[in-house]
Amino acid sequence: MKYISFIVLALLVLGICFFGFTQYKKGKVITNFVECQKAGNPVSGGLSPRQCLANGVFYTEVLGDKPVVTKPVDDTELIQVASPEKNSKVSSPLVVKGKARGTWYFEASFPVRLLDANGKELAVAPAQAQGEWMTEDFVPFSVSLTFKKPSTATGTLILEKDNPSGEPMNDRSIKIPVTF
C-alpha cells in the first residue's frame, strides 16, 4: 500500500510539472526563426531562406548576420484578379483571369468558388496556371465557371490558395463581391 501511494503521488507531481511546462511553452514569446521552429510551428520548405509562421508573423531563417522578421504578406501580393472586378455584374459562363504567385498553386491549379448571398455554392472549378507554376513569381491563370441564375442579386467569388496539407494555418483566400 505504501508503494502505491508513492507511485500515485509521483505520477501526480509529474502531471503537474508536465502541465506547467506545456502552459509555459504555449505562452512563450517567439522572437526568431529558431524559436518558432522549436515551438513546432509550420516552416516553409524548399525556399531559401525558409520561413516559420507563428501568431500571424513570419520569421525568416538567418543565413547571414542579421535576423529578419517579416510581417504577414497581404494576399494581393500573392494573387491579383484582372477580371471580374469588385462588384462587377457577372453571368454564366463567368471567366476569371488574373495572376498568382507560384506558391498559390498546387500541381498547377487552385480552387475557385462562386457563392450566392446565402452562401450556396453555385459553381466550383480549378483555376489552371497558364505557364510554369513552380516559381515564386506571378503566373497567369484562367478558369470558366458555369452556373444557373441564382435567387439572390449578389454573391461572392472566392479564390483559394491550394492547401494540400489541410492545415488551417496554411489556408488563404481572397473574396470578390459580385452582382448577378
How does this model look, in words?
- The protein has 180 residues and is α+β, with helices and mostly antiparallel strands.
- The chain folds into two domains: 30-72, no CATH class; 75-179, Immunoglobulin-like (Sandwich), CATH 2.60.40.2550.
- 18% of the residues lie in helices and 36% in strands.
- The chain contains two helices and eleven strands.
- The strands form two sheets. Strands 4-6-9-8-7-10-11-5 form an eight-stranded mixed beta sheet, with no helix packed on it. Strands 1-2-3 form a three-stranded antiparallel beta sheet.
- Residues 15-26 have low confidence and may be disordered.
Radius of gyration, in Å, reads 23 Å
Strand elements, count: 11
Strand order of the largest sheet: 4-6-9-8-7-10-11-5
Terminal-residue CA separation: 77 Å
- Apparent shape: extended
- Residue share in helix: 10-25%
Report low-confidence residues grouped into runs of 5 or more.
Answer: 15-26
> Which structural class fits the helix and strand makeup?
alpha+beta
Note the total helix count.
2
CATH class of the largest domain: Mainly Beta
> Biggest sheet, open or closed, and with what strands and sense?
8 strands, mixed
Quaternary status: single chain
Number of domains: 2
User: In percent terms, what proportion of residues is strand?
Assistant: 35-45%
CATH architecture of the largest domain: Sandwich
The third-level CATH topology of the largest domain is Immunoglobulin-like
Order of helices and strands: HHEEEEEEEEEEE
What's the pLDDT, averaged over the residues? 80
